[in-house]
Amino acid sequence: MGNDLFRKILEKAEIVNEPLNYDVVVIGGGIAGIEAALDLAEMDYKVLLVEKEATIGGKMLLLSKVFPTLDCASCISTPKMAAAAHHPNIELWTYSEVTNIDVKGRGDFEVTVLRKPRFVNETLCTGCGTCEDVCPVVIPKELDYGLRGRKAAYIPFDTAVPKIAVVDVDNCIFCGQCERVCPAGAIDFTQKPKIYRVKTRALIITTGYRLFPAERKESYGYGKVPNVITAMQMERLLSPTRPFNSVLRPSDGKEPSSIGYVLCVGSRDKTVGNPRCSQVCCMYSIKQAQLILGAVPLADVTIYCMDIRASGKGFEEFYQKARAMGIKFVRGRVAKIEGLPNGNVR
Q1: What is the DSSP track for 90-142?
Q2: Which of 110, 115, 268, 317 has the highest local Cβ count within 10 Å?
Q3: Dihedral (C-alpha) 133, 136, 138, 141: value to the nearest 10 degrees?
Q4: Do the Cβ atoms of 23 and 47 come closer than 8 Å?
């Protein structure tokens, strides 16, 4: 959410003075936050799980598989999402953001939470998706990193928790179609943002990560060369819920015959102010390369790397398996990437 939009929401927000108390507030509803909330709830603590997106699940749900075991990422996270939603000691606040934390003393915190309006009555919505079907507005879908579109009235994905629609009023044209067809009468454009102050004895912050903005490395052509994509976009192309049901080039929808991975983009790089290693790109690129050979068996896959850091349990064997599969490793720093007239990348 942009800063200007966030400020506008805060200006319109209604302050709720209802006293709320929890043993623990977990900020961030990804796999780490869900696991923490479940562990604490099983120990009979009352937990509030706050997530800024419309569903819990976080980045884990966007992945294809996990390394080095190649277990299904959604198979791990989806049961935990359901368990968190149904646990009597956990309350979920999705589409909500923590705006302030006031430390009053040891074991005494007051957390200010902004609950953004979905413009959908959560108690009435059945998650049928009718509003999404009739909505005429299509914009890039954030969860797929722009590879496909979503509607202005939408459910984030089929296994969203909670499975409740959201109306994106910043892109809505207020045609009223969703309101007219909703069988439960759940669309409510009168909703306002609300600010709650929550008292808690402990806080756990599990707010995940943001991708390095690849366009900062101008010589690599991201955002200008259509077939230069980020690793998370490739994750979406490889995942079971992938946008095109196949690995296809964004520029023309063709199946690629060769794919190159450029490692250490945004890490180990003083020119962007980050001399540190990300510690994950070696292994997730090897994981993706192996999955690509399963989806596109004849593809030529090359990984351009400064070196391979395979320091975890089973990582070295995972790397050697990739080499045995025919994945090539070229040691060196890629200087420049450019697009060719036929859509290929050099």
Answers
A1: EEEE-SEEEEEEEEEETTEEEEEEEE---SB-TTT-----HHHHH---EEE-G
A2: 115
A3: -30
A4: yes
pLDDT at 78: 95
Give CA–CA dist 336/180, Å, rounded.
Answer: 53
Please list, in sequence order, all residues whose beta carbon lies within 8 angstroms of the beta carbon of residue 192, skipping any fewer than 6 positions away: 12, 13, 14, 117
Q: Give residue-wise pLDDT tens across range 91-129.
A: 999 999 999 999 988 899 999 999 999 999 999 999 999
Distance (Å, whole) CA 17 – CA 166: 25
Tokens of 10: 């805060």
> If pLDDT is split at 50, 70 and 90, which confidence band does 244 have?
confident
What count of Cα atoms within 13 Å lies in the side-chain half-sphere of residue 178? 30
Percent share of the chain, pLDDT over 70: 97
191 with 114, same domain: the answer is yes
Average pLDDT, the chain: 93
Contact 309, 278 (CB under 8 A): no
Domain final residue, candidates 150, 171, 205 = 205
| Tokens linked to 342 | 């036929």
Question: In sequence order, which residues have a C-beta less than 8 Å from that of residue 115 and are 6 or more positions away?
Answer: 93, 95, 96, 193, 194, 195, 196
In a domain, 55, yes or no: yes
Neighbouring C-beta atoms of residue 17, cutoff 10 Å = 7
Token couple for 3:
């800063």
Which token pair is 293? 């050979």
Q: Which helix (H) or strand (E) holds 317?
A: helix 315-324
Q: Are residues 224 and 156 in the same domain?
A: no
Identify whether the C-beta of residue 131 lies closer than 8 Å to the C-beta of residue 182: yes
